[in-house]
Amino acid sequence: MADVVACPSCGAKNRVGTPPAGKTPACGKCGAALPWLITATDATFDREIKAPVPVVVDCWAPWCGPCRMVAPVLEELSRDLAGKLKVVKLNVDENPLTAGRFRIQSIPTLLVFKGGLLVDQIIGAMPKQALLARLNPYLS
Ligand SMILES: [Zn+2]
User: Fold this and answer.
1) Confidence class of residue 15 from pLDDT cuts 50, 70 and 90?
2) Ligand 1 mean position to 7 CA, how many Å?
């Protein structure tokens, strides 16, 4: 699924879909790293968690209050960590296969993948600095 984002460096509008294998999205105009935040479904999940950078999957649902606090934090992290992190949104109501596969019992749950493998699972909302500290070991 392609989303349009403004380049944090030059302001050019870019479509962020699936970059070439092994690459992270970059601005078509100036080459700066772009925030990488996409929406996955049961059908695209396996493809989306394979990335050259760590992937955080936000398992959420529209009726979940704490999920609404996590969403803007992850948006900020995708901007702050452009080129170093990928954020994937997964609506667990619409994608029960993936939610079942990872035994998502309460939301928000964040699944952290590195090299396509699940390396961490964070249950519940967390302030930005705490989340960043938790993710830091995977970012190097
Ligand atoms: Zn640019």
Assistant:
1) confident
2) 5
